DNA sequence: GATCGGTATGTAAACCTTTACATCGCATAT
DNA sequence: ATATGCGATGTAAAGGTTTACATACCGATC
């Protein structure tokens, strides 16, 4: 019941009647110690319940086997399955994963940076844009880092994520192929790189279909449910309406569908909606949301692989790994209503 | 551009022309060092960009200022706001928070336990039931721990969470007051303590209203969306139907509403549904879900407070802190349809 | 002027590892 | 019989802190 202090390597050594060096070797280089000795050591370990003090180990070795994942919002529905990808890959290479939640607060970011500076983690994974600290000075002594899911704005940190442009283009093309010509883009942004690229995919597709710019409607938004709802209101103050809503992400799409339902429209009969991300809820909307699927676990896996690789040899140039997403057809897109 | 090794306390000492002891004191016990010296040290710190190596510090002191939060599923929509409560409270006391994701895998739990054994974290917060490791041996040398959101089954670990029984009772009473008499309970469980208690709240309320046991319908379920959907199917194989569904949590309610819509029913006209938790999506369902709101940030705050307190003086007995939840009325409950 | 008390600082040990280097035995080659 | 080499083990330093204890200094007290 009482908390005894954990056994140290010395306790094991004493019990096995060897030196601490031998214990250490028996654990990490078993082939370097005689079989009989090894057995005695292992027995002693079992008896004492010894588990090596990772902190002392990292202090001595100048590197740990933990990777820190920094996320501004762990509630992001994309995060959890990306994380699983990250973890599986890390695990396969003998690394553990810890998560830090910055809440977009630079102070908290700094706190975790100290954690890194103390070698308590060997590498850093940045989830969703924005470096978590004033990057000028700190970037200097940053450990190996990789951005995942969204590139870090204005930095050269290597990035692994979806091919936003191509994905958005697929979405727009699907809308076009269903017969839509007046397609609104909801969730335009000046600062979020991933969203900028999705906007570009939209433009590319509409250019190719020779939809003139004046038939395009583009509404700003920060990619939240609320922003989608708002966009509907703004759009209804205009004289012409779109027949389809292409949303920068699923959250926006939820807001749009909500706003439309609230106005008494019947989806997908009256309007088509398409999203981007394929968040878990997408299936449970009514109608179920047609969207672009983020290959989340692949992204996680590859991001971690890149990071782990850069631990041994620093990456040459800044790199971007883009993964192609697929269209997921559900019920929210139909041919445009005649009106 | 190149990664220089971080400055150590020695670098600072040399620059300020004092001993390392004085530097350490200047940082942690400023009143113990002369003003002029302190200034020199601070200057040196600024120049070198020194930040104390938390690992060496913890190694020496035998305790860190990080708290580890272990979650089997960080995708749980309840997790994120509880976490914020935890973090804010921790921060106010000079502690940082790290998250470990166990995915219900005991191996991973063990890995994080090693982390704790190395004093890399001073305390442990267990989110949502189930100790993350075979607890017999390990429980012995567990650091101060608190369970949050759901008690750990069959353990004496202190617990902070919602008053499930009282909350469920509120829900059932609301349904009764709306005129319902045939109320089904969806999501019964034998192993999840929190769910057991919600079931109890249901029984208590129906007892008080003198609803005979044969009019109660109780369907098993593990609290997932899918389980809710399934429950609807099971229920429709019976001869009598309920007029209202009381769901063990919101996820189940989503499944139930989905199943009902799929069968062509019109909610809330044909059936009433009530949930428990008030997850963020609850507002966006159609109809918006009437439910019991988890006081999430309060739970987080109090759990961390309890843990931090138990760091200085071990808790006497096993404790449970139960917080009373409120009913949130939205659109999914009406009077029963006449049929 | 010697003693005392108090404040400011320094010295060195301790926390728990890993690992370069040294040592020891023993078998093989000469 | 001596030299050589090799495998198994031990010794001790190093990694960056904190802190008990020792020292040095200075002003005040007798």
Topology summary:
The structure is a homodimer of 339-residue chains.
Chain A: H1 9-16, H2 20-28, H3 35-48, H4 54-61, E1 66-71, H5 79-92, E2 96-101, H6 106-117, E3 123-127, H7 135-140, E4 145-148, E5 159-162, H8 164-177, E6 183-188, H9 193-208, E7 217-220, H10 225-235, E8 244-247, H11 250-262, E9 272-274, E10 291-293, H12 296-312, E11 320-323, E12 326-328
Parallel strand pairs in A: 1-2, 1-3, 3-4, 4-5, 5-11, 6-7, 6-8, 8-9
Antiparallel strand pairs in A: 10-12
Helix pairs in contact in A: 1-2, 1-3, 2-3, 5-12, 8-9, 10-11
Chain B binds a DNA duplex (30 and 30 nucleotides) through residues 8-10, 18-22, 24-25, 28, 32-34, 37, 52-62, 118-119.
Low-confidence stretches of chain A: none
Report the count of strand segments of chain A.
12
Helix content of chain A: 40-55%
CATH architectural label of the domain at 164-294 in chain A: 3-Layer(aba) Sandwich
Strand-residue fraction of chain A? 15-25%
The CATH topology of the domain at 164-294 in chain A is Rossmann fold
Mean pLDDT of chain A: 91
- What is the radius of gyration of chain A computed over CA atoms, rounded to a whole number of angstroms? 26 Å
Oligomer: homodimer
> What is the assigned CATH homologous superfamily of the domain at 164-294 in chain A?
Response regulator
Can you write the helix and strand succession of chain A as a string?
A: HHHHEHEHEHEEHEHEHEHEEHEE
Organism (chains A, B): Mycoplana azooxidifex
GO molecular function (chains A, B): DNA-binding transcription factor activity; transcription cis-regulatory region binding
Domain HTH lacI-type (chains A, B): 7-61
Keywords (chains A, B): DNA-binding, Repressor, Transcription, Transcription regulation
């Amino acid at each position: 019941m009482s908390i005894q202090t954990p056994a140290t390597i010395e306790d094991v050594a004493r019990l096995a009647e060897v030196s601490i060096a031998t214990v250490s070797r028996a654990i990490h280089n078993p082939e370097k110690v005689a079989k009989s000795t090894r057995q005695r050591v292992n027995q002693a370990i079992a008896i004492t319940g010894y588990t090596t003090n990772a902190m002392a180990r990292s202090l001595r070795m100048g590197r740990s086997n933990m990777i820190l994942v920094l996320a501004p919002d762990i509630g992001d529905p994309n995060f959890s399955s990306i994380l699983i990808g990250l973890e599986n890959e890390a695990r396969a290479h003998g690394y553990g994963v810890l998560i830090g939640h910055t809440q977009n607060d630079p102070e908290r970011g700094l706190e975790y940076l100290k954690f890194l500076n103390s070698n308590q983690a060997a590498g850093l994974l940045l989830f969703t844009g924005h470096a978590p600290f004033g990057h000028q000075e700190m970037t200097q002594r940053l450990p190996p880092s990789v951005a995942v899911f969204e590139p870090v704005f204005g930095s050269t940190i290597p990035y692994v994520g979806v091919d936003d442009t191509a994905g958005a283009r697929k979405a727009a093309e699907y809308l076009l192929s269903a017969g839509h010509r007046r397609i609104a883009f909801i969730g335009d942004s000046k600062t979020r790189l991933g969203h900028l690229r999705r906007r570009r995919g939209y433009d590319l597709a509409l250019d190719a279909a020779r939809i003139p710019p004046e038939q395009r409607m583009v509404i700003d938004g920060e990619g939240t449910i609320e922003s989608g709802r708002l966009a509907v209101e703004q759009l209804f103050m205009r004289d012409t309406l779109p027949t389809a809503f292409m949303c920068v992400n699923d959250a926006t799409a939820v807001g749009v569908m909500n706003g439309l339902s609230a106005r008494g429209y019947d989806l997908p009969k009256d309007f088509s909606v398409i999203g981007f991300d394929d968040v878990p809820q997408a299936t449970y909307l009514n109608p179920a949301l047609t969207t672009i699927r983020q290959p989340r676990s692949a992204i996680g896996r590859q991001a971690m692989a890149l990071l782990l690789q850069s631990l041994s040899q620093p990456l040459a140039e800044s790199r971007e790994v883009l993964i192609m997403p697929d269209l997921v057809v559900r019920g929210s897109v139909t041919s445009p209503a005649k009106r």
